[in-house]
Specification:
The structure holds two protein chains of two kinds.
Chain A: E1 2-4, H1 8-12, E2 25-27, H2 33-46, E3 54-58, H3 59-64, H4 67-75, E4 80-86, H5 121-126, E5 132-137, H6 141-152, E6 157-163, H7 167-170, H8 177-186, E7 193-196, E8 199-202, H9 204-211, H10 216-220, H11 231-253
Parallel strand pairs in A: 1-2, 1-3, 3-4, 4-6, 5-6
Antiparallel strand pairs in A: 5-7, 7-8
Chain B: E1 2-6, H1 7-18, E2 22-24, H2 32-44, E3 50-52, H3 57-69, E4 74-78, H4 80-85, H5 87-95, E5 101-106, H6 120-123, E6 131-134, H7 138-153, E7 161-166, E8 174-178, E9 202-203, H8 209-241, E10 248-251, E11 258-262, H9 265-279, E12 284-289, E13 291-293, E14 304-309, H10 319-328, E15 333-336, H11 346-354, E16 361-363
Parallel strand pairs in B: 2-3, 2-4, 4-5, 5-7, 6-7, 11-12, 11-14, 14-15, 15-16
Antiparallel strand pairs in B: 1-8, 6-13, 10-12
Helix pairs in contact in B: 1-2, 1-7, 3-5, 9-11
The chains are: A alpha/beta, B alpha/beta.
Chain lengths: 256, 370
């Protein structure tokens, strides 16, 4: 069953009494997804049921207002999968900045571009030492499918962080969605990796991208939200991506 | 079993008898003893519940909502700031029609930090769709917690119930307590809208004005039906276990010319004031309102009323006095007393009756009374 806090999915699942989803969906208040899922998971396990409990939340409901409930559920070792689909803004309400918005990006509340960097949320999740966590991107659907299957096969709290380019909010034509996702990965702006029982594995496509990245300008240029971005902000994005790659590389090599 | 217990321990003992599948709670003074006792029961195996030690009250209620939505019996306990912190989810629980039972140990709200009794915390949740009951003794705390599960889970109600007990005055006072197993007095929970993976549905999704309005009316319809369910539950409880309380407890009421109306422990203190006044030849009585939502139908019969509010709605007045004015066109002497745990004795209450000025408001112990 799915637990959905306020996010774009609140809207796209349909209007009562119709639903576009063929599993039970429990809608819950913005800050409460992981806590609601905790109660469900415990009640189902008490009843001897193995039903998967999956939180499906946006970046705002995960890295900002929902961080406390997520942290609590992960610290308690709750048996659930938390999927954050990250379109790097409060998009349901019309593209306001979130903690996941990258530096330099235009949003309706950062009209001159965001002056802070994207919150390194995966490091926060990793600090809870969950048995399995991974990043993914909508441009690699087979990879998502494999990682969800893997996460659901493991007991305890698991986390999947999916980069989800948003045509409306990021200001690009929707036929470019997959391409933008690929550019994010190939430029090293989004790194696909898994962390299983503490062991980090960078996925092949990102390994190649880290060795030989395309210029990040190739990722930024097709997106209206980065129009007019300053050279300084581009440098910030580049150095943040570089530091992330170095850290993951060190973790994979076991020298962190 | 006859024992000596605090109000908090009585609540925990009642919960043990009803073995909820899931209990999610966060500690706060003066409620802590409830969660400590429940954690001890779960650890010792006396209570076969999943105890979720959540990281906040907002999450406590959210976890109860998730658990209850699967059709499981669910309990939590809180107080004051904890209750206010979960306010959003308190609304959600009622809107989602989940029969969660919560004990709230009534406590004042900061600033300044004050851990003592006041009803303003629970009154701020009065419009959420929860049933609310206020108890005055340790035994009543036990008995009412048992009744609360039966009422909440009744097919005509399916709304959450908040059992309120005064911080320290009751939560930490020790009195005799008769515990017992309620047996089939509380039947197993059968939630008609429990999540069913074989029949997937959406819950709480985007809902247009027409359906939303209908859902609101259904909450109110259930609240009205709850009046009969409460009465039936009290009668059945009296038949099986020999004690009865009613929606409001009358004391030397029938021939009284002047009646003190209060809630919680103040309502019990008022009974002593009534005895004192009777020795002076004043035909006094008292009425302790137990069920605040749904609000009881009261026969006030043209008596003089002295209403004591351990609460206040700023810019309006005492909440109980205001409710009686609105519901029954009463013209009480409204006394605001006991805020932040202020000591209010039976002598003080007798004084309110002797000095009553119908239609006026009096702030007990505050200079420059209105």
């Amino acid at each position: 069953m799915l637990v959905v806090p306020a996010c774009c999915t609140s809207v796209i699942q349909g209007i009562f009494p119709h639903t576009a989803v063929n599993v039970p969906v429990y809608n819950i208040a913005f800050a409460a997804a992981a806590a609601c899922a905790s109660g469900m998971s415990e009640a189902l396990r008490k009843a001897g049921k193995k039903t998967n409990v999956v939180v499906y939340a946006g970046d705002g409901g995960t890295v900002d207002i929902g961080i406390q409930a997520l942290s609590g559920a992960f610290e308690r070792g709750t048996d659930l999968l938390y999927v954050c689909y990250d379109n790097e803004a409060y998009s349901n309400t019309g593209m306001q900045r979130s903690g996941a918005t990258p530096a330099g990006a235009w949003t309706t509340t950062t009209p001159a571009g965001k002056s802070q960097v994207k919150k390194d949320f995966d490091a926060i999740v990793a600090a809870h030492n969950p048995p399995y966590m991974a990043t993914a991107c909508v441009a690699y659907p087979q990879d998502i499918f494999r990682k969800v299957g893997k996460a659901l096969s493991i007991r305890g709290p698991t986390f999947l962080h999916v980069l989800a380019p948003c045509p409306t909010g990021w200001r690009f034509s929707s036929d470019l969605t997959m391409e933008i996702g690929r550019l994010a990965v190939k430029s090293g702006m989004w790194i696909l990796y898994e962390r299983e029982y503490g062991k980090v594995t960078i996925n092949a496509v990102s390994k190649a991208a880290i060795r030989n990245p395309i210029p990040i300008e190739d990722y930024l240029a097709p997106q209206g939200r980065f129009r007019g971005i300053s050279r300084k902000a581009v440098d910030t994005l580049r150095s943040q991506a570089g530091r992330m790659a170095e850290r993951l590389q060190r973790q994979e090599d076991g020298v962190c | 079993m006859l024992t000596i217990a605090t109000g908090n321990k009585a609540v925990a003992a009642a919960v043990r008898e009803l073995h909820p599948a899931v209990i999610a709670a966060y500690p706060i003074t003066p409620q802590t003893e409830i969660v400590e006792q429940i954690a001890a029961y779960v650890t010792s195996g006396e209570l076969d519940s999943r105890y979720i030690p959540v990281e906040s009250e907002h999450s406590a209620m959210a976890a109860c909502i998730g658990a209850s939505a699967t059709g499981s019996r669910t309990f939590t306990a809180t107080s004051s700031h904890g209750l206010l912190y979960m306010h959003e989810m308190v609304n959600w629980a009622a809107g989602a029609r989940l029969p969660i039972v919560m004990a709230n140990v009534n406590r004042a709200i900061g600033p300044g930090w004050n851990i003592w009794a006041e009803h303003t915390d629970a009154f701020q949740e009065r419009d959420t769709g929860w049933l609310q009951v206020y108890v005055s003794t340790v035994q009543e705390a036990f008995d009412t917690t048992i009744m609360a599960f039966r009422i909440a889970e009744h097919e005509d109600v399916l709304l959450p119930v908040m059992v309120n007990l005064d911080g320290f005055l009751l939560s930490h006072s020790m009195q005799s307590l008769q515990t017992f197993a309620p047996g089939d007095f509380v039947p197993p929970l059968s939630l008609p809208h429990a999540i069913d993976t074989a029949n997937p549905a959406g819950y709480g999704m985007l809902t247009g004005p027409g359906d939303y309005f209908r859902f609101r009316w259904e909450i109110e319809r259930s609240m009205r039906r709850a009046t009969a369910v409460i009465a039936g539950t009290e009668q059945e409880f009296a038949r099986r276990f020999g004690r009865t309380y009613g929606v409001a407890e009358e004391y030397r009421y029938d021939d009284a010319d002047v009646v003190v109306i209060a809630m919680g422990t103040l309502g019990k203190e008022a009974e002593v004031a009534v005895d004192t006044l009777r020795t002076e030849g004043v035909k006094a009585g008292s009425l302790r309102i137990r069920w605040f939502r749904p609000f009881p139908v009261l026969d006030l019969g043209g008596r003089d009323l002295v209403v004591i509010d351990r609460d206040y709605s700023f810019g309006f007045g005492g909440v109980i006095a205001g409710s009686l004015k609105a519901k029954f066109r009463a013209d009480p002497y409204s006394v605001i007393a006991g805020l932040g745990g202020q000591e209010v004795t039976f002598d003080d209450i007798a004084g309110f009756v002797r000095d009553r000025r119908p239609g006026e408001e009096h702030w007990f112990g505050v200079d420059g009374n209105v």
